[in-house]
């Protein structure tokens, strides 16, 4: 017993010595880098939040146990190249992790550098879904991926019953990959993107106006805007001028809009007037203790940073939590015996030399171990619980759904990956069983653009851009209206004549006369016609006679209604009737009346079978090129006797009856077109004369060098016509739009 107690004491002593040695072996400080864009809304908020987190951690005796975080910060000013250079500067100083970058585009580039040097790249704002791929193991996203945001947008589209949307987005990694993810999510819900309207980063106001004009000509009126604040706000401004913020339109903005509006101390009424009725998303954060503490001292933190006052936003909370994630991971890293050491990269040693100083870049030996500890963190942060799933995403992704109305933002519900759309906060629903049934998806009422409270239909007939406001356009329209009036009047008179004059020798003229009579009616055995005649048309079953073969058809019709076994008419599907007439070409039978049901024949396939699309496409092609009708004529009507068809009415109007009207209308169109062409040629000749006069060569030049070739002249004329059309269309749209209040100052790009 004494030996056992002695052995236990030795073990305790060894453990105590090991623990004290581990603690004493920790470095005094650890270098971490942070990259921001202080000229952006997110960058300003995040910079203050990161500094606050570092101070809180360094003053907390319960974490890192004496090791301090040495923060080095760089301002990239939203410049991608500067961001890359600054990341290289971090790597020269034995940095164990980099907080940032803000931009998804920069994150793609720096992730390759992080992979090579084994330095975790921890971004709280790069939301591009493709950054979660296995290609970037050292990229750690400490915010919610746009994959979930696009799922929430797709759920909104499905909730309101729209099937097609138009997307407007910035053409970079952030915009393209986000919209690609939206397309995937919509396809899961049997919806689709009808039109993708991309614009380049840094697009001008004119560029964005041109994009909106193209969007306005499309069928869909549900517009998803995935952009940056600098371009997104201009889109709303131009959309208002073009009348695209009116009734019938739907605008859904991703979280870029709330990330710009939330930090503003006072919301600009003029700015909000350009986006009335817009639905926007905001990252949902829980009301945690750390969030309350950070919010209570936020004004003081902003003042100490030397910035003008701005509020705390969700991205500020994510930035604050990012530093704590790194601190918890480093604490676990040191507890497991990890140490900070760097080794030369043999690949860089091979290409060293010159002025790049590549030999200063070294590999973090404990990078993989620290990365593993980062993915294992589990604590309650400022934004909510901080824990990563197997895919490297934060658990419990959720969004607030807000409606911009009047002078503020109104929350109409929430979206979470757990329960979908709801008016109950996600943290409350997490305590209940998941329920994503359609009946459980709810949102509060929305006030749509144009102050509509009724859900917009979401589509219109596409606008082909034809301008009918000119004098020539009005002239042609008046002629056409005159022609339509005459055709309508003639058709009404002809129809009245047809209905009042009995021209058929048979008393049966159609299904209506057959219903009112008491004559027997034949039908094919097993056909749906029996049930249709009895239940839909109310014909007594005693009047019906079942017929099984074409011979029985013929016999019953020849006997007629007055003899036993005969019928006055047979009701059957059109193909069977035509086949019967084809087999009896010399009979006196005929088809009377029009088809009174629209039921057709078709092919049935399992749901989502690829054959359904291919076969439908083939049938449409046969129908469009006339093959289907030629097959029908060949096999069913080529041998029919004229007696199988009712005699045509010689007094009935046909297209030739209106030949004079069409001639007048055609001449009017040609006349208007000629005047327009002459006017255009005249304007072009003046334009060309000015250009030629400004570019006259010296008097010694040859005649051939003084003029353009015919082909060049034609190309120049067509280009002039195109520019004139685009300019006139833009001017006309701007004139008819109601000008709103001017937009307030706009922040720089903070999310791309």
UniProtKB/TrEMBL annotation:
<keyword id="KW-0675">Receptor</keyword>
<dbReference type="InterPro" id="IPR015683">
    <property type="entry name" value="Ionotropic_Glu_rcpt"/>
</dbReference>
<dbReference type="InterPro" id="IPR044440">
    <property type="entry name" value="GABAb_receptor_plant_PBP1"/>
</dbReference>
<feature type="signal peptide">
    <location>
        <begin position="1"/>
        <end position="20"/>
    </location>
</feature>
<protein>
    <recommendedName>
        <fullName>Ionotropic glutamate receptor C-terminal domain-containing protein</fullName>
    </recommendedName>
</protein>
<keyword id="KW-0407">Ion channel</keyword>
<dbReference type="InterPro" id="IPR001828">
    <property type="entry name" value="ANF_lig-bd_rcpt"/>
</dbReference>
<keyword id="KW-0325">Glycoprotein</keyword>
<keyword id="KW-1133">Transmembrane helix</keyword>
<dbReference type="GO" id="GO:0015276">
    <property type="term" value="F:ligand-gated monoatomic ion channel activity"/>
</dbReference>
<dbReference type="GO" id="GO:0016020">
    <property type="term" value="C:membrane"/>
</dbReference>
<feature type="region of interest" description="Disordered">
    <location>
        <begin position="731"/>
        <end position="752"/>
    </location>
</feature>
<keyword id="KW-0812">Transmembrane</keyword>
<keyword id="KW-0732">Signal</keyword>
<keyword id="KW-0813">Transport</keyword>
<dbReference type="InterPro" id="IPR001320">
    <property type="entry name" value="Iontro_rcpt_C"/>
</dbReference>
<keyword id="KW-1071">Ligand-gated ion channel</keyword>
<keyword id="KW-0472">Membrane</keyword>
<dbReference type="Pfam" id="PF01094">
    <property type="entry name" value="ANF_receptor"/>
</dbReference>
<keyword id="KW-0406">Ion transport</keyword>
<dbReference type="InterPro" id="IPR028082">
    <property type="entry name" value="Peripla_BP_I"/>
</dbReference>
<feature type="transmembrane region" description="Helical">
    <location>
        <begin position="660"/>
        <end position="682"/>
    </location>
</feature>
<dbReference type="Pfam" id="PF00060">
    <property type="entry name" value="Lig_chan"/>
</dbReference>
<feature type="domain" description="Ionotropic glutamate receptor C-terminal">
    <location>
        <begin position="452"/>
        <end position="638"/>
    </location>
</feature>
């Amino acid at each position: 017993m004494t030996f056992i107690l002695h052995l236990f004491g030795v073990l305790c002593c060894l453990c105590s010595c090991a623990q004290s040695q581990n603690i004493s072996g920790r470095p005094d400080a650890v270098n971490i880098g942070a990259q921001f864009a202080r000229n952006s809304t997110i960058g300003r908020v995040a910079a203050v939040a990161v500094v606050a987190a570092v101070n809180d951690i360094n003053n907390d005796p319960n974490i890192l146990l004496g090791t301090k975080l040495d923060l080095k910060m760089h301002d990239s000013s939203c410049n991608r190249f500067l961001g890359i250079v600054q990341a290289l500067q971090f790597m020269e100083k034995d940095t164990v992790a980099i907080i940032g970058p803000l931009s998804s585009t920069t994150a793609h580039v720096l992730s390759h550098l992080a992979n090579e040097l084994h330095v975790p790249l921890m971004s709280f704002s790069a939301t591009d879904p493709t950054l979660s791929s296995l290609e970037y193991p050292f990229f750690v996203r400490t915010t919610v991926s746009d994959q979930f945001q696009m799922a929430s947008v797709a759920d909104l589209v499905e909730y309101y019953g729209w099937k097609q949307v138009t997307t407007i987005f910035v053409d970079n990694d952030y915009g393209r990959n986000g919209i690609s993810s939206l397309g995937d999510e919509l396809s899961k819900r049997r919806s689709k993107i009808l039109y993708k309207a991309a614009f380049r980063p840094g697009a001008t106001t004119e560029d964005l106006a041109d994009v909106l004009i193209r969007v306005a000509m499309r069928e869909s009126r549900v517009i998803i805007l995935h952009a940056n604040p600098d371009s997104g706000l201009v889109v709303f401004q131009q959309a208002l001028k073009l009348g695209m913020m009116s009734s019938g339109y739907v605008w859904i903005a991703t979280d870029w809009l709330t990330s710009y509006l939330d930090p503003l101390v006072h919301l600009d009424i003029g700015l909000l007037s350009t986006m009335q009725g817009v639905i926007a998303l905001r990252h949902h954060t829980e009301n945690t203790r750390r969030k309350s503490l950070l919010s209570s001292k936020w004004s003081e933190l902003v003042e100490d940073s030397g910035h003008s006052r701005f509020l705390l936003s969700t991205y500020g909370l994510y930035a604050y939590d990012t530093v704590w994630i790194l601190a918890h991971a480093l604490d676990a890293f040191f507890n497991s015996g990890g140490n900070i050491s760097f080794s030369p990269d043999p690949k860089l040693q091979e290409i060293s030399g010159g002025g790049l100083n590549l030999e200063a870049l070294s590999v973090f030996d404990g990078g993989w171990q620290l990365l593993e500890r980062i993915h294992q963190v589990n604590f309650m942060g400022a934004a909510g619980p901080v824990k990563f799933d197997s895919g490297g995403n934060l658990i419990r992704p959720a969004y607030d759904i807000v409606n911009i109305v009047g002078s503020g933002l109104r929350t109409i519900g929430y979206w979470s990956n757990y329960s979908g759309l709801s008016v109950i906060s996600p943290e409350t629903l997490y305590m209940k069983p998941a329920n994503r049934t359609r009946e459980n998806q709810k949102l509060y009422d929305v006030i749509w653009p144009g102050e509509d409270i009724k859900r917009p239909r979401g589509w219109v007939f596409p606008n082909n851009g034809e301008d009918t406001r000119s004098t020539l356009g009005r002239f042609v329209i008046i002629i056409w209206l005159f022609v339509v009036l005459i055709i309508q009047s003639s058709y009404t008179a002809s129809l009245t004549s047809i209905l009042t004059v009995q021209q058929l020798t048979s008393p049966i003229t159609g299904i209506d006369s057959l219903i009112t009579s008491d004559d027997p009616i034949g039908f094919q055995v097993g056909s749906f016609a029996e049930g249709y005649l009895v239940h839909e048309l109310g014909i007594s079953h005693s009047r019906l006679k079942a017929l099984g073969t074409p011979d029985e058809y013929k016999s019953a019709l020849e006997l007629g209604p007055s003899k036993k076994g005969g019928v006055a008419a047979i009701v059957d599907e059109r193909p069977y009737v035509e086949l019967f007439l084809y087999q009896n070409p010399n009979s006196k039978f005929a088809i009377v009346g029009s088809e009174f049901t629209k039921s057709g024949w078709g092919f049935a396939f399992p749901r989502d079978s690829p054959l359904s699309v291919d076969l439908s496409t083939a049938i449409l092609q046969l129908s469009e090129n006339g093959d289907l009708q030629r097959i029908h004529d060949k096999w069913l009507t080529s041998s029919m006797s004229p007696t199988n068809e009712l005699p045509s009415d010689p007094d009935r109007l046909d297209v030739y009856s209106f030949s004079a009207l069409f001639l007048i209308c055609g001449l009017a169109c040609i006349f208007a077109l000629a005047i327009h062409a002459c006017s255009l040629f005249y304007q072009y000749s003046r334009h060309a004369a000015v250009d030629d006069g400004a570019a006259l060569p010296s008097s010694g030049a040859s005649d051939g060098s003084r003029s353009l070739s015919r082909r060049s002249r034609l190309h120049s004329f067509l280009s002039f016509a195109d520019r004139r059309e685009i300019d006139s269309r833009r001017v006309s749209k701007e004139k008819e739009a109601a000008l709103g209040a001017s937009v307030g100052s706009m922040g720089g790009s903070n999310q791309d």
